[in-house]
Amino acid sequence: MQAGGRAVDDVTLAEPGSGVFGQAGDLLLGVGVERATDAVDLLEGAAGVGSGAVVLRRAAARDRQVRAAAARLGVGLVELAEHASWAHVVWLLRGVLDRAASGPTLRAEGPVLDELFALADACAALVGGPITIEDTQSRVLAYSSTQAVADPARVSTIVGRRVPDEVIANLRGRGVFRRLARSDEPFFVPAGRGLGPRVVVPVRAGTEWLGSIWAVVDEAPADRVMASLAQTASVVALHLLRLRSQADLARRVSADRLRAVLSGDTVEAEGWLPPAPWRVVVLAGAHRPRAAAADPGPAEVEREIDVWEAAARRRSWRHPLLAGFDGSALTLVRDAPGDASPGTWEWLLALVEEVAGLTPTATASAGGRATRAADLDRSRREATEVQRLRDVGRVTGTSTTVEDAWAAVTNARALGGIWTEELLGPVGMLREHDELHQTAYLTTLAAWLDHPGDPRASAQGLHVHPNTLRYRLQRLSDVVELDLHDPETRLALRLQLRALGH
């Protein structure tokens, strides 16, 4: 769909007061924007995010100041007649966009979605009211083209493709979802708490609940209508099974493609990757805490991916790039300064904080920025390094990049080449002495190296008196010869002690 020469692929209700202007490619609906100054502010916000166009009521759209601002900013301006219903505009635009997006050239599940839209229209003809077909997570899969009832909950549902949280809470409090999950028959939900009356039709395949059909009605339909809705639900169930099967296939194809490019296979990668630069990120802890010694199996990794994918889609990343790789859940995000749109590093930081608010163990460990597809393998290895250090407590914080953890990563790489079975130099001798005489020379030396020239801090770390520390260092020098003034000696000693766990 085009507006003012720009491509439009989504509809967003603008909220200038909250700074909500959608994202690139959105058509912004200026509901309630009547003053010229507010309209200009909306146009500026739309230009800032690259929105496709802005829809305003006729009076605001024809204001000379507003038209000049639109021309200056290069934002398409769409005029809405004063008598036109915003609800009707939403149904019309969302229907055009969703039906266009469901074409087989863009989405493998397109034909199934087309048939679901047709079934929604058939149900709407039965009950004489608007219909939505939803999955078990209250995400809208299809809806009828006739939406004459201007129900605010309907507007928010169609625009966001998901039932608003406050509406879900309302219906859950009234026991609607409990009955929906257990019932096989359509049932009537009376009006209440700001919602109009509805008919709810469970969609099941055997004992499995697949989704539901929702109809906005004026009163409870006749028994014959309810029976027809139940029959339609059985047809919808077949389509939902097909949709789930195709979605699983599309997800596997996307994951395989991502795994290939993260392994170094960059053939044709530029054709489907988002614009560079990128980061590879290990996502962990949203499903369950990750133990340092544990090696998550494929099922655990898939559950981790499921949680992160659901969270990403809730925050508008329509096609998350997620895959399991070597026992970890990985994602690839774009990392351009100032870009916080869905699927970017700045956006992911906010997502991880949100998930961590519910599951405190949720974390993100990011590799370095990659400007070429060939660099993604390196970014993946760095992200894995950061995650391994997090697993053993060497890295903390909810979200950490390899740039943040450079010291720990450098030390870990150096330690990887140290053979603790055959330690060179005095550390091996001190280890033998500690084992034979029950002394604590290794921990004493490590504390001193961590706080050189500060006996009080070194002693505090060992929970001993500073004089005790000095005495141990004197006795230690009787066992081995050390030149602690030499920086190379101090570095070698510290690396060996760290390799031994000190």
UniProtKB/TrEMBL annotation:
Alphabetized InterPro entries for the sequence: CdaR-like_regulators, PucR_C-HTH_dom, PucR_C-HTH_sf
Segments forming domain PucR C-terminal helix-turn-helix: 441-499
Biased composition (Basic and acidic residues): 372-381
Low complexity composition bias: residue spans: 362-371
Region (Disordered): 362-381
Name of the protein in its database record: PucR family transcriptional regulator
Species whose genome carries this gene: Terrabacter lapilli
